[in-house]
Amino acid sequence: MARRVSTKLIRNLPNVVNLLNKSSSNNPFLNKPVCSNFQSHQGFIRYINSSPSSTLTSITSTLNITHSLDKQVSNTARLSLDDTERLFSSVSTKQLLRSLVNLHLASIESFVDFGIWVMRSRLIDTPLCKEIILAIAKHSFYEHFCAGENLKEASNTLQKLWDDGLRGILDYGLEDAIDNPSCDRNLNEFLKAVDSTKMLPPSSVSYACVKVTAICPISLLKRVSDLLRWEYKDPSFDLPWKLDTLPILSKSSPFYHTLEKPEPLSPQEEHDLQQAYERLIKLSENCYDLNLPLLVDAEYTSVQPAIDYLTYSAMMKFNKYSNPIVFGTVQAYLKDAKERTIQATEAAEKMGITMGLKLVRGAYLSSETQLASSLGHASPIHGSIQETHACYNECASFMIEKVFTGTGAVVLATHNLESGQVAAGKAQGLGIGKGNPKLQFAQLKGMAEGLSFGLRNAGFQVSKYLPYGPVEMVMPYLLRRAEENRGLLSASTLDRQLMRKELIRRLKVAVCVMIMKALLKQIISTARQHAEQKKSKPLMANRVSTNLQQNIPSFLKSLNSSPSTYTAVTTPLNLTEELENTIKRKPITTPTSHKTLSLDDGESLFSSVSSFQLLRSLLNLQMASFDPIVDMGTWVMKSRLMESMVSKKIVLGMVKHTLYEHFCAGENLDEASKTLQRIWDSGLRGILDYGLEDATDNPSCDRNLNEFVKVVESTKLLPSSSVSYACMKITAICPISLLKRVSDLLRWEHRDPSFNLPWKHDTFPVLSDSSPFYHTLERPEPLTLEEEQDIEKARERLFELSQKCHDTNLPLLVDAEYTTVQPAIDYLTYLAMIQFNKDNNPIVYGTIQAYLKDAKDRMIQATDAAKNMGVTIGLKLVRGAYLSSETKLASSLGYASPMHGSIQKTHSSYNDCASFMIDKVSTRSAAVLLATHNLESGKMAVKKAQALEIAKGNPNLQFAQLKGMAEGLSFGLRNAGFLVSKYLAYGPVEMVIPFLLRRAEENRGILSASTLDRQLMRYEGISEETQKLKSGEMSCANLHQLLCPYFEGIAK
């Protein structure tokens, strides 16, 4: 809503002030210039712009808003931290200030030294002093670097990160256990952390994290490390307890820890080591069951060989597949880091193990140097930070190459901008997909925020390391963070520069908005005086100049725009042209001049949408994206409240005026036709769907069929081509119980081809080897004679409807539904295709749900079979809308979900299927309707169609979105010249409740399109109000009342 209420601010001020002052000179009611002190305002703005921050953009410089928005919502090819507004768009000013203060304090060496001294002094032994010290630590370093004191607080922090587009690495901050009981307690805490991820948003947790010193006494780890070092020196040295594993040490490793031959482990020590191994295996098993990778942290060189031994032993057990579960850690500041990385990775490759590594620089700088020095040996750490950077980049490059070949996975934990840029460039050069889970980036919470957001904006998967636990327990971690922030300040310095830059930018915007607020109040006050004297004239007419009126929209836009993520204060705009477009608007026709899909021009996208509609849509989408509202609404609709006539009437009334009117076209065909006319006037088409499903018997099926036939016949009375498809659900013309029976029989026939189905007609394959079969665990009984008659009636109903569509030349979409009944739905749909799709313009379309793992296999099988039979297959491609129910059903039966494990895989499946079908369209052997709310899928399809030179008006390639969702994408595709439809479900409110519940669930679960729409709508604003202002329909009082809420929000 911001473009209409905010575009050009500063640059038009001089013109407006001059016009006002000119009017006042000829106006007996304006006896002095309106803005005599404007020059001081202008001087003040110049003063702000002269701030000694050379990298900042001048307050009056220009910025392409829509280009910025496009960058925000799409993956960029390059890692860039130039745009601080975009980097910190999800960070409040309070958070920025707090982070800046904490990082600044941590960069003052004397302050850090004092803090470390206090934390290790006797003051901590005094209860009162301890309480004060821990409170100070909690509200400074602790809250900056840690996620909370318990799992609940950590989950809240994780949710905030997830909302910002980042993921989290959960680490319960335990280390240095002293005996087996404390190790067992720590293991239980780690297991709780892993189990808790079930309750968090899917994919929000990227890794769990563990320190081996928390599940194995450190004294034992030192003993084992000594023995491993001695074995490396003397290969004849026998270690009977040692398992075969990957190489742990190299020639360049430090050996000064073990100067004498160590004693063998005692039986008790061997037993304790076995227990430590079993603890790590237990934790790894839990992670494996949840498909949650486990990061094993590196620690001091005195114990690192034992840690690597246990880690590699777990890798041998759990990393036998393409996606590793157990990840070790390499510290690049160690001189032997690269050699050990290469040795272990190549050995893993030979053994068929996928190596998983987290690559860090290191956090034990002081202690390692002091220990080596005390023993009279050179430090195991590189002599300069440049050598550490070089080692890190070489190790990262090596591991990225292994990711490319599929033999390795790496988490690049770095705060260094150059390393991030090198890695991103390397990945891009090798063509590694940015969503590839084997290449991820990570930073500590509270550090390198700019790099995290920059990598996120570049399309890579980025996580923040989230240690949590009671303040006292995680103090060792905090001390190391302070030590590292002092020693490796490059990332912190950059972050502080970026934060300062963004805070100054926000200050400039806030000051200018305050000035403009005061100035506009003065303008309104002056205009009101004039209007009171000339009541017969419209507001702001005559003496206040026509030119002034043309500039007022820019004031409204400027003052109502919030200084947030994408809005530039001084973006240029031709106001006169915009006002003319607003007043002389004509119905939109589909342009053909655009060659690419673009959502840059919000005015063009939403030119056919009124401000009232925009505001209403924005509110509805905002509510539908708010989980508590969706949960409460779902509960109410399924509760006993619906059994009471009074409460039912109230609930249905609320639903009708919110989600129903947003997602549905009306309660009857007449209302749906009016909605269709409005869509047609805006250059879109409609898919009419009478919202019926889940018939229970033949009479209800016949009634539903009659309604569907009426819909098809009604299209004769509507504008030609305004209806692109009719739509129906098989569950509305065939009892769902029968569909389940038929699906069970089809699944069993796929398992056992000798299984005879006498009622079955020849058709395309309806199942593949990757389809879910857990619905049918036992051989089903054959259909009874009555059931055979009923399935034949269902086929006849579908054929009757298809014939009506054929006579009207209106394609029919058959919706996909639950996997329990989908085989039967596909069976009936394919029968109709064989009958009615014999020429190049198919009548019957099936539906493929790309979130199912078997989607691509089934689509290819059916398409190939149709080609062999001389049938033009028609398919609608969707992602899917039965997410919760499918997951719950599979889980209740003890099976893996039939759906892809992540939204990224679903996107990939959808794009693969779309690309396949577009290829078939180019060969005139298929037709496809791409029903998608995803911008990237839309862009991919447009690019593919353009490359294959498919005509944009080709009816065999069309796009569709649900009414009320992805409006920006719909209008963008329309403007690019493609045929675009909105899915118009209609029917009585109560009858289409199942559809509404699924829409709310989908809008919550797959929010990318809704989020983009809400961003675009905030840009596109209240042009109708400006029109009313020009025509005199809006009074000064109305204008002031309209603006005040915006003013207050901006001031805050």
TrEMBL record:
Report keywords, A-Z: Oxidoreductase, Proline metabolism
Q: Which residues form a coiled coil?
A: none
A matching Pfam family: Pro_dh
Q: Name one GO biological process term.
A: L-proline catabolic process to L-glutamate
GO CC annotation = mitochondrion
The UniProt record lists the Proline dehydrogenase domain at 155-488, 673-1008
Q: Which GO terms describe its molecular function?
A: FAD binding; proline dehydrogenase activity
Checking InterPro entries in the record gives: FAD-linked_oxidoreductase-like (IPR029041), Proline_DH_dom (IPR002872), Proline_oxidase (IPR015659)
Q: Which domain of life is it from?
A: Eukaryota
Q: Name the EC number(s).
A: 1.5.5.2
The family this protein is said to belong to? Belongs to the proline oxidase family.
Q: What is this protein called?
A: proline dehydrogenase
